[in-house]
Amino acid sequence: MDVRTLPGPPIPTDLRGRTHLYGGERFADAVASALDMALVDPPPDLLAALPAYFTGRHVELITLGQARRHRVPRFVKPAAGKSFPAGVRPNGTGLPSHLPAELPVLSAEPVAFAEEYRLHILDGEVRTASRYAVFGVLDSAPLPPKHPALGFGAEVVNHLASGLPSAVVLDVGILSDSGQFAVVEANEAWFSNAYAADAERVLDVVMRAAGPAHEIRDTDRPFVRRTAGIRDDDATLSARQPGTSRHLSAGPTATT
Q1: Are residues 157 and 168 in the same domain?
Q2: What range does the domain containing 73 cover?
Q3: Stretch 211-236: mean pLDDT
Q4: What's the rounded mean pLDDT across residues 122-132?
Q5: Residues 35-59: what's their mean pLDDT?
Q6: Quick check: is 79 in a domain?
Q7: Do 141 and 191 lie in a common domain?
Q8: In a domain, 51, yes or no
Q9: pTM for this one?
Q10: ∠ at Cα 122 (36, 187), nearest 5°?
């Protein structure tokens, strides 16, 4: 594959219709329409729609305006994207005031995870995985083949069935108070750190999640990201030449 790193505009339009992408959201929004790409995202209500058995806590999809009225501690994050930092807020008064009140957010009961794991999913199977945190501190390590996080992840994927795109990242963890597994969140494969997972298998998932629009599967069309127009973002691109596979990747914005 031919890999190109872009520090900013201009976008190389000669790559139109034959590229894949790995990078930040602003970068993705900038290049997707210019290069005729389709990016798939997990549904924004995925976590809120899961039963408590899989989440281990109460999670709801509400608006930012509603979250601003919280009077008790809640974990609040954007339902899609990263327009403001996710975290536990003592109340809603400290949430960003410059963002629209109708912005969808996820509001959850605060919990602590003893360990957290990232699972790269392709076609309903966990293709590779990595531990990424221990008690909230970054600590990546590969997972053995029979690690229980893999079994829990497979159970979640089976439950969701057609409610997931064919390529996605699922974060799961062990709740520190009960020792039970729970879903942390779902993320875009094209904007997720691989940590200690198998890089080649991660790439398989990334390339499915962000590639030429004409290659998008019908089952993935409901999950295609709506881009927000051209904006600056450091990142990397790659593209296909006739008879070869070439890939777009990203720089420092490629972690989540």
Answers
A1: yes
A2: 58-108
A3: 75
A4: 97
A5: 95
A6: yes
A7: yes
A8: no
A9: 0.86
A10: 70
